[in-house]
Design goal:
The protein is of the alpha/beta class. It folds into 2 domains: 124 residues, no CATH class; 74 residues. The chain is 55% helix and 14% strand. It has 5 helices and 5 strands. Strands 3-2-1-4-5 form a 5-stranded mixed beta sheet. Strand 1, helix 1 and strand 2 form a beta-alpha-beta unit. Helix 3 packs antiparallel against helix 4 and helix 3 runs antiparallel to helix 5. The longest helix is centred in the middle third of the chain and has 51 residues.
Length: 210
């Protein structure tokens, strides 16, 4: 039984529109255009996490031939693989910093708690001593807010994005000849319903134009 896949379809009027025009790198190493990347990733986030991605690139006939010659499939896979590696490094760095901040935060909390207890004992639990002690304890807990944010939220968001880009790097990439369209990529009756831009996407039977 063939493996089920989730399809992301991207249509462009030209091969170079898919890539960052300011990137001087050779074609297989060139960065994707920010808008193209954002739309592919946004679609990928909405699709099933258990299915392999399939990215279909629709281009005019002459551009499909050019894309085959210049290695468009490899260029897209290389880009997402590179971004995946960068995110993996960010994930490790985030975890390392989170652990370091947690150690510092716990030390600050311990010191603040000891000083607070000493204040209460020296000043015989006076209201001022109690107020100062409570402030120190609160300060100690506040020192742990940042490591908690990193370890409970930021780390897992980076990990989720890293896995998504890894799946995009492993996606099956297919080139298809784009059908003849009106200047805005839709039938005349639909002109007023869509913005006038060059990229369109379809996933699991749904269609959206940017």
């Amino acid at each position: 039984m063939p493996e089920k896949s989730s399809t992301i379809e991207v249509a462009a009027r030209g091969l170079l529109q898919l890539f960052n025009s300011l990137d001087p790198s050779p074609f297989p190493e060139r960065d994707l255009d920010d808008e193209v990347e954002a739309y592919i990733v946004s679609w990928a986030k909405e699709l099933s996490p258990s299915r392999r991605f399939r990215i279909v690139i629709h281009l005019p006939g002459t551009e499909v031939i050019k894309a085959e010659q210049q290695g468009l499939r490899k260029a897209i896979s290389n880009y997402f693989a590179y971004r995946s590696v960068m995110l993996e490094r960010s994930e490790r760095e985030c975890l390392r910093m989170g652990r370091r901040f947690l150690i510092v935060g716990l030390l600050v909390l311990a010191v603040c708690s000891v000083i607070a207890r000493i204040l209460i004992e020296l000043m015989h639990s006076s209201p001022i001593a109690q107020l100062a002690a409570d402030g120190l304890v609160i300060f100690g807990w506040v020192a742990n807010w940042r490591p908690a944010e990193i370890l409970l939220y930021e780390f897992w968001e980076i990990r989720r994005t890293h896995r998504l880009y890894r799946r995009l790097a492993d996606a099956e990439i297919t080139l298809a000849v784009r059908k003849e369209e009106t200047p805005y990529g839709k039938s005349p009756a639909e002109h007023e319903l869509v913005p006038r831009n060059f990229i369109s996407h379809r996933a699991n039977g749904k269609h959206e134009a940017s």
